[in-house]
């Protein structure tokens, strides 16, 4: 079952620009996570935001969460060519199986030098 | 440095063969997961395990089985491989003592001819 849905599916920007990706979900959550996947590799955890948090920062990453709209956004500032990857949001399910995450289909980000 | 390893990066098998995909984690995690990833479909959960000898079906268990005889090792078995099982297979682990962050292996790209 698909919980998170990312938007846009693909995003192409120039180095130095900011990149914004959005995620919508359907059910109540305890937390929402963002992951990055370089081409042909496994996923790497970037940041987690709890349901009682509205905004969180980590380096050049900024994540917001709006539980009333069931949506989140990931902002990458001053993008670099090395940020080229696919980005996935993942949600747990409040009251659901412990440890299980539901991943969206991802946003493919291309940062041109 | 925490690590999840998978037995092969690339694997080519023939239709009808029995296929074993091995995953090992060195983080003493209780939870382990097997996903498949296909273009346009995102990550789909095949099976997961919360403890040794314990397994639960995910969203798409048909055609697969799993084995967890030791805490650090979680095996995915394709009893009789079919061409529609050609995919990228990702293993992950997490701890119930954490916040559900999952650590992923590098993936196995399986081609069934």
**Proportion of residues in helical segments of chain A:** under 10%
How large is the share of residues in beta strands of chain A? over 45%
| Strands of chain A, count | 11
Roughly how many Å is the radius of gyration of chain A?
13 Å
User: What average pLDDT do the residues of chain B reach?
Assistant: 94
Question: Low-confidence spans of chain A: pLDDT under 50, at least 5 residues?
Answer: none
> In terms of structural class, how would the helical and strand content of chain A be classed?
mainly beta
Helix proportion of chain B: under 10%
Task: Outline the biggest β-sheet of chain B.
Answer: 7 strands, mixed
- Overall residue-averaged pLDDT value of chain A: 90
Q: Gap between N and C termini of chain A, in Å?
A: 37 Å
Number of extended strands of chain B: 11
**Contiguous helical run count of chain A:** 0
What is the H-and-E element order of chain A? EEEEEEEEEEE
Helix/strand structural class of chain B: mainly beta
Query: Could you say which overall geometry of chain A the principal axes of the C-alpha atoms support?
Result: globular
First-last Cα distance of chain B: 37 Å
Largest interface, counted with CB-CB under 8 A? Answer: A-B, 26 and 28 residues
Radius of gyration of chain B, taken over Cα atoms and rounded to an integer in Å: 13 Å
Cα shape of chain B: globular
Brief overview:
By secondary structure, chain A is an all-beta fold. Chain A is 0% helix and 53% strand.
Give short descriptive properties of this protein.
heterodimer, A: 113 residues, mainly beta, six-stranded mixed β-sheet, five-stranded antiparallel β-sheet, 53% strand, B: 113 residues, seven-stranded mixed β-sheet
Structure description:
The complex is a heterodimer of chains A (113) and B (113). Chain A has 113 residues and is an all-beta fold. Chain A is built from no helices and eleven strands. In chain A, strand 7 (61-66) and strand 8 (71-76) form a beta hairpin. The radius of gyration of chain A is 13 Å and the shape is globular. The N and C termini of chain A lie far apart (37 Å). Chain B has no helices and eleven strands. Chain B has strands spanning 4-6, 10-13, 19-25, 31-38, 42-49, 56-57, 64-70, 73-78, 87-94, 103-104, 108-112. In chain B, strands 2, 4, 5, 6, 9, 10 and 11 form a seven-stranded mixed beta sheet that branches. Chain B has a four-stranded antiparallel beta sheet with strand order 1-3-8-7, with no helix packed on it. In chain B, a hairpin with a 3-residue loop joins strand 4 (31-38) and strand 5. The N and C termini of chain B lie far apart (37 Å). The mean pLDDT of chain B is 94. Chains A and B meet through strand 4 and strand 5 of A and strand 4, strand 5, strand 9 and strand 10 of B.
